[in-house]
Each structure stands twice: as C-alpha cells, then as structure tokens.
Amino acid sequence: MPTMGWMRRCLLSLGLAGAMGVTTGVVAGDYDAAPLTRDFIAEMSQSYGFAPEQLQALFGEVERKQAILDAISRPAERVKPWSEYRPIFITDRRIAQGVDFWKAHEEALARAEREYDVPAQFIVAIIGVETFYGRNTGNYRVLDALSTLAFDYPPRAPFFRSQLREFLLLAREQQVDPLSLTGSYAGAMGLPQFMPGSFRAYAVDFDGDGHINIWSDPTDAIGSVANYFKRHGWSGRGPTAIRAQVSGERVEEGVVAGIEPVKSVAELRALGWNAQDPALRDDLRVTSFRLDGDKGPEYWMGLPNFYAITRYNRSVMYAMAVTDLANAIAERHAAEGAKP
C-alpha cells in the first residue's frame, strides 16, 4: 500500500496534525474554499470528530479531474449481446493467468474456502474480471475521484458524497495516507475494486498483519472477496446457473428483467422451461433470463449463488462472465494439477 508522506498525511486524516505540531505547507487546491466542501467538512467534524482545520488542509491538496467527469458523463455504449460480451472476459490469457494466480496464492485461497465456504475459482474469477489479477486497478487518487464526483457531478452527488465520507473514515481506521490510495475514476479500489463503503463493510485483514490492504496484498483481497460473497448469501458449492431447454408459446413470459429471483422453478416449468438438475426444487425461486448467444437465444436459471454474484455487479451478463471464467479456471487448474 502506498505510504509516501504517511506520517504527515495520516496525522492530518486523523485530525491530529495540529496537536502533534505537524505543519502541512499545502497550497490552495480546487476544493478547499468551495461552499460544498465547507458543508462537508462541517458534517465530518460534527458527526465523526474530524478536526475542521485539518480537513481544510487535506482538501487543499485535492485536484478536480475533468477526465473523471468526462468519463462518467460519457453516453452509455450500446449494450453488447452475450455473444460479444463473453469473449471480452473468457480468453485463454485470462484463464491461464487465473490458474497462475491460484497457484501463487494456493494457501490463502484454500483457507478462504474453508472459512467462508466460497470456492477458490470464484474468488479468482472476480479478481480476474475486475482487474485482470491486479494489473488494471486504476491510477486516479481516490480522494480526487470521489471529491470530483461528490462536488461536481450533481446526478449522483449524494452517493459519491457518502463514499467520500466512507473513504475518510477508512483512512482514519486503517491509519493510511488518504492521498496515496489509488483506484478507478469512480473511486473503486484495489484488486477486487471495492468502493469505500464496501471496504468498510466487507474487507478483512486476512493475513493478520493489523491492516487491510486490498491494493497490493492478494491475501487480504482474497479474504475480502470471499467475505463479500458470504455476507451476500453465498452457500457452498454446486451450480450457479443452469441452462434450460424451452418449448411452447409462453417461454418469453419466464424472462424477468433485472436480477431478482422472481419466478419459481415450477412456475417456469409451466411456461415451457425445463432443466434436469437435483438442485432445482420446485419451490426454488431463480433469476430467469435470456442471453443472445452465438447460436441464438439461451435461457438460463440463476441459482442463489448466482444472485450472490450479482450483488457485486447488478448484471446477469457480469455474473455469467464470472461463472464461465471460474469454471474455465477450475477445469484448467485441475487438468494441470493432474499432469505428471
């Protein structure tokens, strides 16, 4: 985890710099004098005990990033069909490097399986989809990103203001330099791309060194992903999604927009959806969706663990990409383990 200027900035983030006789020597930045910043500083001081003068100095070093506003305001791309979305993530390189990541962190992944009951391949796949195993974690200062969006992006200002608050709290709790931590343009952080609120709720010190570091410590990242899944309902092994064979005129009535498990297996069967699997009890409610595959429409039932994946990203295609990558990594890991 980056620690340049750690003592000065860490004390500053804790509101102790003045008491310790530490001088900041900062120059005015983009937000230190803004009315919205003053309101935010007042809230953090009154509700969370931060020293106003120290937060004022901290925001004096924050920079407004037009590139972030451009990125978040950019018109949404055409939604890709599954036939185009899947190849982005299910590649030989991503599978091979997922196996390498698994082998490099075998002990931590095995312990995460034992403690959280989440299979290693799904932990690896999340990190593979999110950041290519830590290669693409983002290079914006998180404080710049969250401040820019909290104070200069009205459509989602309340959300990013809440994440800015969570970020300052986590920096204080973890005793890290808030200006040293980097992430995506939206403020997502580390190998698993946790937002600050998710960090505070689900990230864990899996290596027991007294700090939670999801930026450069794969062990903490592994434990944190596993804990996130467990806290969102992951339970054991078994399939996450099962493809259904369909027939009849009412098939499309089974397709539900969104990720919620609305229809039961019995209801879907009455609409012409059929899948033979002992995991599919008649009363089980599943996420029922259609994907546009290479060979035409595909109809799927997402089971409870599939729904847990969608809590990471509210998209059935995202959850399917994680599922397919996890299965491919597990298959290759097993095959390579069986080689003489």
UniProtKB/TrEMBL annotation:
Catalytic-site annotation from UniProt: E130
Matching CDD domains: Slt35-like
UniProt KW Signal keyword: yes
Keyword Signal in record: yes
Gene Ontology MF, one: peptidoglycan lytic transglycosylase activity
Domain of life: Bacteria
GO biological process: peptidoglycan catabolic process
Residue ranges occupied by any Transglycosylase SLT domain in the UniProt entry: 37-326
Signal peptide annotation: 1-28
Keywords, sorted A to Z: Signal
NCBIfam families: MltB
Protein name: Membrane-bound lytic murein transglycosylase B
